[in-house]
Design a protein that fits this description.
The chain is an alpha/beta fold. The chain has a single domain, classed as P-loop containing nucleotide triphosphate hydrolases (Rossmann fold, 3-Layer(aba) Sandwich). Helix content is about 35%, strand content about 20%. The chain contains eleven helices and ten strands. Strands 1-2-6-7-8-9-10 form a seven-stranded mixed β-sheet, with helices on both faces. It starts with a strand and ends with a helix. The relative contact order is 0.17.
């Protein structure tokens, strides 16, 4: 998990499974507030109270168009950003314990979390959820496809005694099931004022945009219908907005694309899609949560 704790609000929480794009987003945001980009919605106030050693480390990788080193299992980096909102100069102190995605999955498997984590979610007032579209557990499994696979193995859709199915384990569980359960726990355990605002961020959006051209909301609706339905059917608990984000700006493994990215100003690389439109402001999913 990644936690935001601004001075003007209670905690904002970032959630996501392993390799969901959280750390890359943090690196890009740290460059954003330190850059000379015009019209920024978040700006650097002072380095005081900012844990800039870790932030500078992941930012350096990001600036070089390298894949950002993710957080180690069980390790929590207590990161802070001391910022200002550009529109009103309101001070924003962001605190980010960047916990690994595996630790997030362990909450589901062990059915328990630490007192430290419980204290974090107890005052949460906003959540950013990161979705990796390349993770097969973030995509719908249709019965028709399962039946076709069974037939290909020589069985029948109704079942065959000669086919042995694996026992259930946490690794086989769809991520949307884990996300919905986590939100249910937050709703039942948090002392915050509801509804809590959620920015749903589909990472690596450049890959989806080139392949399908759909909106972030429609992608979530099709690929993660349980998660989408839970958000839409519980407006008293949560209020959501959907974003497609490419914090890298493109595919570093493609030489031609990598060359084009390196020709841009670093702060111009990230892309954010809202509904059918693109904007060039990586702070928008955070700003939306802070607005009344």
């Amino acid at each position: 998990m990644i936690i935001f704790s601004p001075l003007y609000a209670d905690d904002l929480q970032f959630a996501g499974m392993h390799d969901s794009g959280k750390t890359t987003f943090i690196a890009a945001i740290w460059d954003y507030v330190n850059s000379e980009k015009k019209g920024k919605k978040l700006i650097l106030n002072t380095l005081a109270n900012s844990e800039n050693q870790y932030l500078d480390s992941i930012r350096s990788e990001w600036l070089k168009c390298q894949k950002v080193t993710r957080t180690n299992l069980g390790k929590i980096e207590n990161v802070r950003m001391n910022l200002l909102k550009s529109e009103n100069q309101e001070n924003v102190l962001i605190e980010i314990p960047d916990m690994s995605g595996e630790l997030f999955a362990e909450h589901f498997q062990s059915r328990e979390w630490s007192i430290e984590y419980g204290n974090v979610i107890n005052e949460v007032s906003g959540i950013l959820i990161f979705i990796n579209p390349e993770d097969t557990k973030n995509r719908t499994n249709f019965l028709a496809d399962s039946n076709a696979l069974i037939e290909a193995l020589g069985g029948e859709p109704e079942g065959n005694e000669d086919i042995e199915f694996a026992s259930w384990n946490e690794e086989m569980t769809s991520n949307q099931v884990k996300l919905v359960e986590t939100l249910q726990f937050i709703y039942s355990r948090s002392n915050s004022e509801f509804p809590i605002k959620i920015s749903v961020i589909v990472s690596r959006w450049d890959l989806l945009e080139s392949a399908h051209g759909e909106t972030p909301e429609s992608w979530i609706q099709l690929q993660m219908p349980l998660f989408f339905q839970y958000l839409k059917c519980n407006p008293v608990s949560f209020k959501s907005a959907f974003y497609g984000v490419s914090a890298q700006g493109g595919n570093y493994d493609e030489p031609t694309e990598l060359e084009k990215l390196r020709e841009l100003e670093a702060y111009d690389r990230p892309k954010v899609k809202i509904d059918g439109n693109f904007i060039n402001d990586l702070a928008e999913p955070v700003i939306w949560i802070t607005q009344d």
